[in-house]
Amino acid sequence: MELRARDHVPGLTAALTVVSLAAVFGTVLGAVPVGLLPTAPSAFLDAIPHINAVFSTLAIATIVLGVRFIRAGDVDRHRAMMLSTLGLFVAFLVLYLYRIALQGPAEFPGPETVYQFVYLPILAVHILLAIVCIPLVYYVLLLAVTRPVSAIYDTAHRRVGRIAASLWLISFFLGDVVYLLLYVVY
């Protein structure tokens, strides 16, 4: 029996989403054994938020360019930008989870009022959108890589991709706001 990914995009999307969210929540909740992770100098761990802010800002640019390219009918450049965004996201996530596993989440250094009424709501929306984006991004990615370009137009790639790109863009932007509040403003 032949297993063809193109015939199982929703199931593969669900499986990849479950594995990804388990890895994220497992790390955040401390289920990853720290002893299994390689050690890094504290200077590197301290640099991760700054590196991730660059990745996040670059991802915003690649999403915007990807949207512009597809609107202009340039599928190859669109694909390159969206795959670049995915690569930036993966790099961001690996570094973020590595730091979280070793050091835990960063504490907000600003005033309590800003923490409660600005920082937490922005962080909550950022996290919620990041979680919602995972299955959407997997879905459009799997549709794109399992079909020739001419067949993608007959799928939900365009409709779901618009939603995924919009939410991903907002999530990255809010991630940069979180970074600014944690590491620049306070």
Chart the SSEs and their pairings.
Elements: H1 9-28, H2 42-71, H3 75-103, H4 112-145, H5 149-152, H6 157-185
Helix pairs in contact: 1-4, 2-3, 2-6, 4-6
Notable traits:
globular, mainly alpha, 186 residues, 0% strand
Structure description:
This is DUF420 domain-containing protein. Keywords: Membrane, Transmembrane, Transmembrane helix. The chain crosses the membrane at residues 12-36, 48-68, 80-98, 118-142, 163-185. InterPro entries: DUF420. With 186 residues, this protein is mostly helical. It has one domain (19-185). The chain has helices spanning 9-28, 42-71, 75-103, 112-145, 149-152, 157-185. Helix 2 packs antiparallel against helix 3 (75-103) and helix 2 runs antiparallel to helix 6 (157-185). It is globular, with a radius of gyration of 18 Å. The N and C termini lie far apart (59 Å).
Brief characterization of the structure:
The chain has helices at 9-28, 42-71, 75-103, 112-145, 149-152, 157-185. With 186 residues, it is mostly helical. The chain crosses the membrane at residues 12-36, 48-68, 80-98, 118-142, 163-185.
Task: Characterize the biggest β-sheet.
Answer: none
Residues in helix, %: over 70%
User: What general form does the structure show?
Assistant: globular
Low-confidence segments, given as residue ranges, are none
Order of helices and strands: HHHHHH
Residue-averaged pLDDT = 95
* Class computed from helices, strands and strand pairing: mainly alpha
Distance between the termini: 59 Å
Beta-strand residue percentage: under 5%
Q: What is the count of DSSP helices, taking H or I runs of 4+ residues?
A: 6
Number of domains: 1
* Radius of gyration over all CA atoms, rounded: 18 Å
The count of DSSP E runs of length 2 or more, i.e. the number of strands, is 0
